[in-house]
Every structure is written in C-alpha cells, then in structure tokens.
Amino acid sequence: MDTGVPECLFCKIVSKQLNAKIIYEDHLLMAIEDINPVAPVHVLIIPREHIGSLNAVNEDQLHILGHIQVAASRIADQLGIAANGYRLVNNCGEWGGQTIYHLHYHLIGGVKLGWPPL
Ligand code: AMP
Ligand code: ZN
Question: Ligand 1: residues whose CB is within 6 Å?
C-alpha cells in the first residue's frame, strides 16, 4: 500500500527515501529519533499512512491511534524511561505547535518534565 504524499518529509522517512535513526518499526508505524531532541529521550512515532494531523483522523484509523499508544509504552519500556515516566505529545495545528503536517507523536523522557507548557 503506497499512501505516500510526494513532498511530505515523514512519508519519505517511512518509505526510507530519507534516512533517520530508526528505533522501532512495524506494519503500521515507524519510531525514529527526533533530529532536534528537547530531552534525553525524544522519539517521534509516525504512522506509515499519511494523515495530515489529528484533525484529519477518521474512524477507520482508530486502530492506528491505538497501536501508536501501545507502541509508545513498549518503546518507553525498551528505552528505560517507563518506570520514572514520560510524555506522549501530539502537536496539532499552528497553535498546537505542529510544523510537519504528517501526524506524529513525540515520546519525551529521561528527565523530569515541567507542566504546564506555557
Ligand atoms: P512538530 O513540531 O510537532 O510538527 O514536530 C516535528 C518534529 O520533527 C520536530 O521535533 C523536529 O525536530 C523533527 N524533525 C524535523 N525533521 C526531522 C528529520 N529529518 N528527522 C527527524 N526528526 C525531524
Ligand atoms: Zn506524509
């Protein structure tokens, strides 16, 4: 199944036209190291299917979102950040801080995180 969008950076990464440091991959997603990490652990979890943002998700794609959540917890465990805790973040749209319009979740940890985000 080729659901890639030609000019989309993350479509190119999941189809391996562009290199990334791959942490984990399966039939639905790829997890890579963020190129500009904001914490000791900063992984991007990216569905293989091009979905522009959380706003564009439809009910046929719920299994992808569920899969991402479970994969995030497994990856967090593998990277040794599960016990202390971590954050799984989706930035949606301009005000949410989204810069790449292919749905992705940030798995951030390895340090005690602050809250709230403002
Ligand atoms: P967002 O601002 O939520 O859309 O997140 C986009 C993320 O992608 C940022 O944290 C960037 O550092 C990261 N990023 C951009 N280009 C690459 C790349 N080529 N490989 C890995 N991460 C990237
Ligand atoms: Zn894409």
Answer: 9, 20, 32, 34-36, 44, 91, 97-100
Nearest CA to ligand 1 atom 20: 35
Q: Which CATH number fits domain 9-109: 3.30.428.10, 3.30.930.10, 3.40.50.740, 2.30.130.10?
A: 3.30.428.10
pTM value is: 0.97
Calculate the CA dihedral of residues 44, 72, 16, 48 and round it to 10 degrees: -100
E strand intervals along the chain? 22-25, 29-33, 41-47, 86-89, 105-109
Active site residue 67: no
User: Which among 50, 102, 104, 106 is annotated as catalytic?
Assistant: 104
Over the stretch 48-103, which tens digit does the pLDDT of each residue have? 999 999 999 999 999 999 999 999 999 999 999 999 999 999 999 999 999 999 99
